[in-house]
Amino acid sequence: MNASGPQESAQPNRLAGAGLIDRIRPLSFQFDGKRYTGFDGDTLASALLAAGVRLVGRSFKYHRPRGILTAGSEEPNALVELRSGSRREANTRATVVELFEGLEARSQNRWPSLALDVGAVNSLFAPIFVAGFYYKTFMWPAVLWEKLYEPVIRRAAGLGRASTEADPDTYEKAYAFCDVLIIGAGPAGLAAALSTARSGARVILCDEDFLLGGRLNGERYEIDGVSGPAWTRQVEAELRASPETRILRRTTVFGVYDGGMSGTHTFAALQRVSDHLAIPPAHQPRQRLWRIIAQRTVLAAGALERPIVFGGNDRPGVMMASAVRTYVNRFGVIPGRHAALFTTSDDGWKTAFDLAAAGVRLAAIIDARSVVAPVLTEEAKRLDTRVFCGAQVVDAHGSRALERITVREDAGRLSQLQIDTLAVSGGWNPNVALCTHLGGRPRWSDAIAAFVPGDVPRGMAVVGAAAGSFSLKDALREGAAAGAAAAEATGFKSVKHREPRVTDELTAVVPLWCVSESKTKAFVDFQHDVTREDVALAAREGFSSVELLKRYTTLGMATDQGKTSSLNGHAIMAALTERAIPELGTTTSRPPYTPVALAAFAGVHRGKHFKPTRLTSGHAWAEGRGATFMESGEWLRAQWFAAPGETDWLTIITREVRAVRSGVGVCDVSTLGKIDIQGEDAAAFLDRVYINLFSTLPIGKVRYGLMLREDGLVLDDGTSARLAPQQYLMSTTTANAAKVMRHLEHARQVLWPELDVQIVSVTEQWAQYAIAGPNARRLLERLLGDAIDVSNAAFPYLACAEFSWRGVTARLFRISFSGELAYELAVPARYGDAAIRAIMSAGEDFGITPYGIEALGAMRIEKGHVTGNELNGTTTAADLGLGRMMSKKKDFIGRVLARRAGLADANRAALVGIKPTDKSARLYAGAHFLTLGAEVSLQNDQGYVTSVAFSPMLGHWIGLGLLVRGQERLGERIRAHSPIRGGDVDVEVVASVFFDPEGARLQS
Amino acid sequence: MADDTLTARAPFTDLAFSSTPYGGVVVADRDGLALAAVLVRKGCLAALTARVRERFGIELPRGPRRIAAGTVAFAGLGPATWLASSEERGNAFALTLKEAVGDTASVADQSSGYAMLRLTGAKLRETLAKVLPIDLHPRAFAPGDVASTTASHIGATLWRLEDSAEGLPVFEIAVFRSLAGSFWDTLTHSAAEFGFVTRETIS
User: Fold this and answer.
1) Hey, what CATH class is A619-671+771-787+817-859 in?
2) What is the rounded distance in angstroms from the CA atom of residue A742 to the CA atom of residue A754?
3) Whole-model pTM?
4) Given CB 3.0 to 4.6 Å as the disulfide criterion, which of A78, A285, A357, A580 pairs with A94?
5) What are the pLDDT digits (tens) for A123-158?
6) Closest Cα to residue B36, out of B88, A669, B45?
7) What's the CATH number of domain B25-31+113-198, 3.40.50.720, 3.40.50.800, 3.30.1360.120, 3.40.1410.10?
């Protein structure tokens, strides 16, 4: 038996001995439920081809049978659903899926089966599915759009199905920094990596493949007397031994992002850490998204071979010539027994010679060029292979796979060849995608009939096939030179090394974009089923610019982004409209280069990890008390504390409010912003940021303050305490803490750098608890003992003090949000847990009740205190009834613009209270005010409800709102209309303070 | 009411985690370290520098550097801001500092404001590459270097200490105390594949 002939086995197309696969590690897998065997080192595509499977999918629009076209990430046809259940993944390219034991894949877009697909009748209706059919065929009647046309089209034209279950795997992000990033580990990239690594520079070498080597793995090159793969392993070993070199295999650099004049850029790369495993091992992510910050870049991304557009060029069995070589040389697989070559390039001839070396004699070599280098034709003659020069493949025929081709010979004679495999080479397109992500335009090269890098990002060098240099010799030389230059540019000394010895090769090409005499459908874009006729139609209808062509025909808009199709489409359009290709231009390529799963972008930020969570130091205690928590910005705060048996939130809140107002309660208020303000000019600083005076505030006192934005609207409110002559402690609302800090920093650093003011956030330093209710003082007397005198005389309303308590520095403020006799006790957060337990213990005899922010909210509405709902960025101090706080004795931020006509208008909406006329009616926040009897219309809008609560003290719903000329309308009956929540309630306008309007309780 | 003292609760309490195969990353909670923000008063940099030198034997760093002497260290966090730390436990450090700097700087106790970890391990840099968007390569971030950055959307301040006796890198990272749990989740998730263990102390 011929050692290199096909084996008779379950892998009929596997060659003995050849390839970079591990034959002692067979792997079993399933495709469409049928069991097959491949080897470690196979892709799903190579294993399917080895098993003789040619039909792997149906096309997007016409459901045409499709096979495997390429051996790389540009594959437009062989898209499959990979894995099952919660790991099912749609549209994975069989050409890059690494085979693993137990792999399961299914073909897509077919029903009931791949071989018998009823959707293929779409082909019969092809005339209505031409370019632009969405816009033409289904225009009328419009009522059928959503109900009929769209669902039918969506089902018929489609890709695979993603899993609807939660993804059980993890994804993560990582950052990497390097002096030189090398993209692509083919010969050019490896040469670049060697010269940079030897200089000592930090190098990252990325390749999307699981083997380094690029085309060296698919060709029969010799470098320095050893095979391409052997040379690759030598280089890899040296790079692995280099301490500053990192090799990222299975990693696609898919985008170039910000960077600057220095040449440093940020790159995004996807590393498929576990995609080659059935299930990732514990703690190993499936994929990792890298952000790589590189000072210099060597782009060695290679080139993509382009198809030729001719009739039936999508038949399974029609493959790229380079892919055929890859399957033969790298995987030891011959795609078919009866093969021919259709080429317009010297490079294509390698496929004929490699197949011959593997024991497969070609039926014919069909070269569209009339004149071909004699060295090629002589070799063909030696191999006894028929050669047709100046000939073209007009049509490829077959039902589910290629069966024969029609060849038009030089003299015009048509002949038929019975073959099952046609290798096609239309020349190579340099892979310029990453040169263009920052807006660079590629440049047309007549020499290679393709676009080459034009203006590339600063700091990036493009080498080898990506630069249009297709010979191995050029790739190695350019790579080594660019690597050395990049190392020098980043401050390293490059080491000269000998250029490797390689054989010369021929790289001539004469483009043939399309075969004009084809009788059958000739595909330009395989994945989107765009044909030559579609491009012609677009030309006829005037959609002749590349951007319009793309959108009208969907050319290049599939998940492969036109890698094998765009240039062919543009060239056909150029010919049809009698323009040169560079004149027509090309479409813009944007990241990502290949599809990236959304999960990779999300990384670890899923579910409750979507954003960080902030917990107060009393959190564990509140949890132990059975608190229900709610989000307040990043914080979790206790919403309420349900007692055993309590299920209704209103019952719980009512109990909590009554307990506070009749006894004593405690609430964790640690989340409020706390800013330490010190310096000789601290008082002057506060006078300028608040509308009211703080320089007059005595030491040991607290004052309520309101601050405006520069535009005169309210920014935030809160209290500030004067702890020392030159030290204040400002409190902010929880929501605005960061915003206020930014505002103050801006004021300090930019507006008034002459002031001596130092500010620092101490929010996290202090745990703070509000202790409120008639028994608050008695509780504190018991809790604090001799540490501080809390009697009304010694510590009246708005007093504050810092003192030592149980070995820690504590602070006490007599302030009240609830309207009760209340204090806020602060201790360093390390002692926050101990403090709340001590408060609870001291309050036990008083029936202390912990309360959450719902009860706090109800009490503040009863007191008419404003909060975020009213400080909503549209209100002025006057709107909130606080206009008189604006000091006339000083300047402050917002003072001038607060007097603008629009903000000083008497017709503005002002804060009022509302209560329902029918005491049993419920109020809704967001309801709009209308005068009674007025029609519901925008013109009649009188303002809106900002906050509502059920008042446990009054026994009915109450609310705050902003009502046009509200302060003049107390006593008026109006309507609160909420079309969204369905409420439409008659309400009475009342003063905004519902409970204890004299404030007797908080002074007591 | 008994006048018992308050018991401190460490920010990383109850946040246990360990993963095999081995301790690629080792962490210790630095709870109890005394911390204070020091912000220089207008025109007082020279005076503050002199006082810090005199009192603590430390040359106040300019820029993002940390300088330690004995049990005290000063880390530069901004143009006029330092985070001072002291190994001496208790909350007297801020008072000591206040007295030492007098009216040349404003001092605010931050001993409770931060949750801090000391980290080491053969896989520490690989782990931190998933957490921090900055370059921690030995050439780019030397012992004594300080950075304020974000750790997976969490504000973080870190510095590098001298390598351990085994030649492993040692870092300290501080985050706001309330974010200790979220930071712990991020860190342990990132370290899990390398093995993660906690220790009482790392010297």
Assistant:
1) alpha beta
2) 18
3) 0.92
4) A78
5) 666 666 667 665 565 555 666 666 666 666 666 556
6) B88
7) 3.30.1360.120
